[in-house]
Amino acid sequence: MTPKIVDRDEKRLAIALTALGLFAEHGFEATSISAIADAAGVGKGTIYEYFSSKEELTVAAAAAWVGSVERQVRPLLSTSGDPPARLRALLGATTSAFLENPRVITLFLEISLLFLKNDALRERFHLIREVSGPVRAAIIEILREGAESGTFKPEAARDAERIAINLVAFVDGIGMHHVVTPGFIDLAAQVDFHLDGLLAGLLAPPQAAAEERMIP
Amino acid sequence: MTPKIVDRDEKRLAIALTALGLFAEHGFEATSISAIADAAGVGKGTIYEYFSSKEELTVAAAAAWVGSVERQVRPLLSTSGDPPARLRALLGATTSAFLENPRVITLFLEISLLFLKNDALRERFHLIREVSGPVRAAIIEILREGAESGTFKPEAARDAERIAINLVAFVDGIGMHHVVTPGFIDLAAQVDFHLDGLLAGLLAPPQAAAEERMIP
Amino acid sequence: MTPKIVDRDEKRLAIALTALGLFAEHGFEATSISAIADAAGVGKGTIYEYFSSKEELTVAAAAAWVGSVERQVRPLLSTSGDPPARLRALLGATTSAFLENPRVITLFLEISLLFLKNDALRERFHLIREVSGPVRAAIIEILREGAESGTFKPEAARDAERIAINLVAFVDGIGMHHVVTPGFIDLAAQVDFHLDGLLAGLLAPPQAAAEERMIP
Amino acid sequence: MTPKIVDRDEKRLAIALTALGLFAEHGFEATSISAIADAAGVGKGTIYEYFSSKEELTVAAAAAWVGSVERQVRPLLSTSGDPPARLRALLGATTSAFLENPRVITLFLEISLLFLKNDALRERFHLIREVSGPVRAAIIEILREGAESGTFKPEAARDAERIAINLVAFVDGIGMHHVVTPGFIDLAAQVDFHLDGLLAGLLAPPQAAAEERMIP
DNA sequence: AATGAATGAGTTTTCATTCAT
DNA sequence: TATGAATGAAAACTCATTCAT
User: Fold this and answer.
1) Nucleotide F5: nearest residue by CA–C1'?
2) How far is the CA of D59 from the C1' of F16 (A)?
């Protein structure tokens, strides 16, 4: 009367994660359902019990990826310290993620391409925006707090969104170049250098001004 | 006396370029040898007279792409005007290339992924470096000339290479995000904004004026 | 004391009838056990509690069909009126069955083919004979009564069986053509026309009248 | 410069005919492309060089069947003798075709079902009409000539079309019943019996009338 | 040198059937 | 008894590659 009890959601996620790993390693088109089934330790038909098509599975894998990125990023968002340090910590974490696992970039590219080439997918899912979203939000928050506390110029708050978009784009771009031209780019150094320039432009001029306001 | 050889190379290139177009439009895996042969107006078997495999053809197509990018970029390198204007012109051209033909990014991603996933290819070919090389070189040249002429701070020359690497990375990154999240990013505005910040840090302070003010 | 058995048979029949409906709608090969289970409101595994295989279920469905046809035909067999009118009523009913629900023919063809192609099935089941049997029997009865009452020639009784076989064959044939060439055949008119010819040959010459005229 | 020379049309037809045989034997759905390829002595892929899909192949096979039926029927259309004899010859030939190769009916049913269930096919092809067409046309011609020569009543010409439609339907119907209920129906006898009745109704009354007209 | 006919390995997907619960 | 999760065989179809001409 009670059939085999299985946590379908859990299994679905497990298969999606298995698929995600293979996708990252070999690419979407190069990863067959057979290979996924083997890697997941289930029969080919079982995949179709949980996903109606390879595309469906792909979407689920991408979603799982977004989720895992979010989970990784979340602790970084509430770093303590002064705003510049928090900014460095945030980007430093992203950078070391790239350094430790270059597949992240491959996967990002794969998924981007997949969504680029498939209009239907793109509408279902604003993937890239979702992945970058939390990081961008954290950057914006840091900028605003920095401006409020007087560490950053007021422009840091005003332009927070544009700065954040560009910063995330830069990190992805340099990460991509790093992965694609192995050995050519000193990723950490380049990111640091970029941040130096950015912070130089953002930091409020020597406290003189602040003190002056305080003195009278 | 060896007209056949010229013929062969020409035809090889023609086929590679045809393939490149189809790759850009449909992606690598989605482009069949049949389709390439049809588009190139030759027989399927003929492809194999010129390329030993699809991979060989793919490499040739990628090489052709690098060549065509170089050819497109070259006229931009010798822009005239003051250094900041030349920098804006150079990046502006790249930006509008992205805006006018988003497939450039797709192709870039496709080829990057291809090389990322295939170690043998990566060693044969330092693709990204080659593609970005000319732009990077031009940026470096502008920075050095700007420093020399006093428009830019001396650091512009000293850090020219790092600045160039980061700038190219940023442009590719923001271009990628732009293509992948259609409608979300105002590409030209973001690039402009980035340049504003960069130039603010690079421009030499109006020393004359400052000194003058100090003297009295 | 054996209520379970009644229950089982009832459920078996219910599943078979559900299957029959799907078979009629989509064909045998296009109807999956899953679909049948869903439509019947039972689990997939339950089907196999009642039928050892899809073939077994198919046979049961065909049997159910025979039964339902018999049930539909039975009231028509005892029509009242003079024999020609009863004949017209009987065929008219069959004809309108075709007209109202062309799937009847599809189902008939499907089942016929199934049995044609499967020798084992054919031996187990003399399907067509069973389905057509009641109609044929009714026709024979009408013919015999008509001959007895003098409405029909004596040959009507003598040839009753052959006439009935041919008549049923004709109706099925014209029905099949009607369904298969939509819009080409005016089914009712053609059946009427056929009956006109048949009755013309069967009706006894107005002997009474003739004799009466002769007597005086 | 000249590739392998093959008569594509010939090979296409050969494959279609091979397929037709398998379809007749096992049914459409039960016949796989693999089986067809094996039976045709070619590789699986080769089938797709000649037909873009199984459906395409099916249509071609059906067309081939129509063609072969027409070729078989054509010599029968110009039989000599008096109209009743010609009618008997025509139906006799069809009947023996059923008797000699019951698969004809199976094939007819298969193809009918296929077209019945597939709206797209039905529109592409008025199959049944085309198959029956020549026979129907021949019947009509015989009826008209018979009426003209005075062998048949004038009604034979007037109702020629309706008679032909019904006659073909009857033959298909009795053939179907014959095949589906093996051993139950004496096909030839039933067809003869039907023709007896039909001719009894069609034949012009004793030449008296015709002679009378001639005498004056 | 050029071609396209031929092919089979491999892809995604379906589904009757089994079986642990 | 009832269930649905699991499965692998088999289906239609694709395509890089080979090879006879």
Assistant:
1) A4
2) 29
Secondary-structure class of domain C59-214 per CATH: mainly alpha
Using the predicted structure, report yes or no on whether residue C5 has a pLDDT greater than 50: yes
Q: What is the pLDDT of residues B4-55, one digit of tens each?
A: 556 888 999 999 999 999 998 888 888 999 999 999 999 999 999 999 999 9
The tokens describing D21, both together, are 């045989």
CA distance B111 to chain A (A): 10
Residue C214 (CA) to nucleotide E14 (C1'), in angstroms, measures 79
Is the pLDDT at B123 greater than 80? The verdict is no
3-state per-residue secondary structure call for chain A: CCCCCCCHHHHHHHHHHHHHHHHHHHCCCCCCHHHHHHHHCCCHHHHHHHCCCHHHHHHHHHHHHHHHHHHHHHHHHCCCCCHHHHHHHHHHHHHHHHHHCCHHHHHHHHHHHHHHHCHHHHHHCCHHHHHHHHHHHHHHHHHHHHHHCCCECHHHHHCHHHHHHHHHHHHHHHHHHHHHCCCCCCHHHHHHHHHHHHHHHHECCCCHHHHHHHCC
Above 80 in pLDDT, residue A138?
Answer: yes
Q: A62-72 b/e with 16+ CB inside 10 Å = b?
A: bbbbbeebeee
Angle between helices D160-180 and C103-117 (to 10 degrees): 40
Residue at shortest CA–C1' distance from F18: B45
Q: Where are the domains of chain A?
A: 59-214
A141: tokens are 């928050």
